[in-house]
Specification:
alpha/beta, 38% helix, binds S-adenosylmethionine, Tcm_partner, single chain, three-stranded mixed beta sheet, nine-stranded mixed beta sheet, Rossmann fold, Three-Cys-motif partner protein TcmP, 288 residues
């Protein structure tokens, strides 16, 4: 098993607190809104945990958290992980943690050549492929009526805006997306990285020398061209240890109740205290 994905800090923990608290609401209070199957779709699933270098700890990630507390609520889990070592670490980590058994082998679809780890109870499929292709395939070929809780958590500019559009056009979806604000800002300033910005933003309509605030505002405005998901929410995430790097957690859905619940979760006073506790720290409660 390879090492866990490495590189997180306090904002990693804050992101996971928001995800988990929203999953709580989604699977309990909001559950009555969804008549159909519920699927959890995680486009950048990682290795199961994130290694936090400066703390020397492995923080449970989105895949572990979604299965640990919510496996009875979701009818299916789809995880995508492009890196082959990460893929193997993920299915081995989930197998060890939850006593699950995965059947690992080729996908078995014409013209496709990637590995899948399959577990049938609970129903889990881990796909070792680019989620931009995999999620679009799922959106176009699988059960249309299932409601998707979709978590998009890239590192760098690897989540294409066109994939988001495919998922939004499919409908029946709540999306939490970790927008790489500083990554977009830095790439916009470097000509060789403009293709990546274009893929992330969906077009060329962005400044080359904007601020962090500009790039998240423009991203949200573009999403809000789809009236059904207006207003799109976001939460600025910056760690006190490294204020040079900012993410914004973006939330899009069509349900007013869900949006209001997420607004409360994102803007709660206790968020950073909870994130600090996840990291085994205290004393950061005043940080916003
Ligand atoms: C930030 S980590 C994910 C962390 C995870 N969500 C968690 O909470 O533990 C990003 C992961 O996405 C994977 N990745 C990068 N590009 C990808 C792509 N196009 N499709 C699927 N996975 C990708 C990387 O290998 C890495 O493991």
């Amino acid at each position: 098993m390879c090492e866990h994905f490495s590189g997180g800090d306090l904002k990693t923990a804050a992101k996971l607190v928001i995800l988990e608290e929203y999953l709580d609401v989604y699977t309990t209070i909001l559950d009555s809104n969804w008549d159909d199957d519920l699927w959890y779709v995680d486009t950048h699933a990682g290795t199961g945990k994130t290694h936090i270098d400066e703390r020397g700890i492995d923080l449970d990630g989105s895949a572990i958290r979604s299965i640990e507390h919510y496996q009875d609520f979701f009818d299916r889990f789809y995880f995508y992980e492009l890196d082959e070592d990460h893929f193997h670490t993920l299915h081995e980590t989930l197998a060890n943690r939850f006593g699950l058994s995965f059947d690992v082998g080729p996908v078995g679809v014409d013209d496709e050549d990637f590995l899948v780890a399959r577990c049938d109870d609970p129903y889990i499929r881990i796909m070792q492929t680019d989620s931009n292709d995999g999620v679009s395939f799922l959106a176009n070929h699988a059960n249309n009526s299932a409601h998707w809780m979709t978590f998009i958590d890239p590192k760098g500019l690897t989540a294409k805006r066109s994939t988001l559009d495919t998922v939004l056009e499919r409908g029946n979806v709540d999306i939490i997306l970790n927008y790489q604000t500083t990554g977009v800002m830095r790439s916009a300033a470097a000509e060789h990285a403009h293709d990546a910005v274009r893929r992330t933003m969906g077009d060329d309509d962005w400044p080359e020398a904007g601020s962090n605030d500009d790039y998240i505002r423009i991203y949200k405005e573009k999403l809000e061209e789809n009236e059904e998901i207006r207003p799109v929410l976001s939460k600025r995430l910056v760690s006190p240890d490294d204020e040079r790097c900012r993410f914004d957690l973006v939330f899009a859905c069509t349900n007013d109740g869900a949006r209001s619940a997420m607004d409360d979760i994102m803007n709660q006073d206790e968020l950073w205290e909870k994130a600090s506790e996840e990291m085994g720290q205290s004393g950061l409660s005043g940080f916003m």
